[in-house]
Amino acid sequence: METQNKEVAALVEKITGLQAAIAKLPSLSPCPEVDALFTDLVTACVPPCPVDVTKLGPEAQAMREGLIRLCSTAEGKLEAHYADMLAAFDNPLDHLHRFPYYSNYINLSKLEYELLARYVPGCVAPARVAFVGSGPLPFTSLVLAARHLPGTMFDNYDLCDAANQRAKKLVRADKDVGARMSFHTADVADLTQELRAYGVVFLAALVGMAAEEKADVIAHLGRHMTDGAALVVRSAHGARGFLYPIVDPEDVARGGFEVLAVYHPDDEVVNSVIVARKVDTQAIGLQQNGRARAPGAAPVVSPPCKCCKMEANALEKREVFATTATGLSV
Fold first, then answer.
1. Using CA atoms, how far apart are residues 109 and 99, in angstroms rounded to an integer?
2. Which of 51, 147, 188, 217 has the fewest CB neighbours in a 10 Å radius?
């Protein structure tokens, strides 16, 4: 225990120093100094550590909250920078690998798709998907559309119109993906009837950075999503909670969802993933008889097994075949 306490104290001290250095920067736009500091930050936070950031003292909590907001600003500027760079190519989607965290998004999107196939198989080939907080470089939607959901329409929502205008330029030359991508400037709090159209809703890690804000967003989704639809929430675990907000699965359950799985990666994928299903909360309350799992008491799961990956691949190929057959029959 003493060794763990020393490890946690050393980490908090290091992160505090990095936060102070980042806060002093005149700008968070990509440049060697900014890149070096954030590389050091991610390198410090990704390895396994016994820290529970939700139980740190008030001073450390204030530092963490400020750091997450700095990370959010820097991430937005990084994505905007690369979106502008990619837009200069004839077909921007052919050059996505130039983004420094490209492999992270490839692996995260694949993980989320496999978890959906494993826990919500009825939602593995939805007609429409919403991504809330898509940003100027909507990697998840682009990767899912190109690699996993070839017949799905994607509605991307972001508060920033400039981000959406940048994102539109990225898909202009791809007739398939471009035809299935829509971008909307809107606050998720203003979406009501629209949310009933989606089989799956993805909630970005930085939508609702404070715990109360995140819980409010999830509760709003729970009030307006259709029963049976899936919600994929990005969270963080351990020291990665210095980079992104941590979502309590109980907040997801209280928002009107059955939490099916919580996955904490231990590799270069930074975000944790919570997979949930929208339920009729009244019916769930009546069904609780002591044997059913209480909402929110979902297992912390291991990576999708080979069997689950085979199932996901089979479902994906089936969707490709169905799309192709439909096209040939026209």
1. 15
2. 147
Q: Of the candidates 36, 19, 75, which has an alpha carbon nearest to the alpha carbon of residue 242?
A: 19
pTM listed for this prediction? 0.86
From the list 125, 11, 100, the residue with the least C-alpha distance to 64 is 11
Q: How many CB atoms lie within 10 A of CB 21?
A: 14
* 32-45 helix and 58-87 helix, angle to the nearest 10 degrees: 130
One-letter amino acid at 48 equals: P
Tell me which residue of 292, 263, 257 sits closest to 277, measured CA to CA: 257
Cβ contact 113:312 at 8 Å: yes
Distance from C-alpha of 299 to C-alpha of 149, rounded to nearest angstrom: 26
Strand partners, 18: none
| Chain position carrying tokens 């980079």 | 243
Q: How open is the CA angle 59-60-66, to the nearest 5 degrees? A: 95
Tokens 């530092």 correspond to 63
Are 183 and 167 a contacting pair, CB within 8 Å? yes
Parallel/antiparallel/unpaired status of strands 272-278 and 230-235 = antiparallel
213: its two tokens: 């804000």
- Pairing type for strands 230-235 and 181-185 reads unpaired
The one-digit pLDDT tens for each residue of the chain (330 residues) are: 566 788 999 999 999 999 999 999 999 999 999 999 999 999 999 998 889 999 999 999 999 999 999 999 999 999 999 999 999 999 999 999 999 999 999 999 999 999 999 999 888 899 999 999 999 999 999 999 999 999 999 999 999 999 999 999 999 999 999 999 999 999 999 999 999 999 999 999 999 988 999 999 999 999 999 999 999 999 999 999 999 999 999 999 999 999 999 999 988 899 999 999 999 756 555 444 443 444 445 567 655 544 344 444 444 444 444 443 434 333
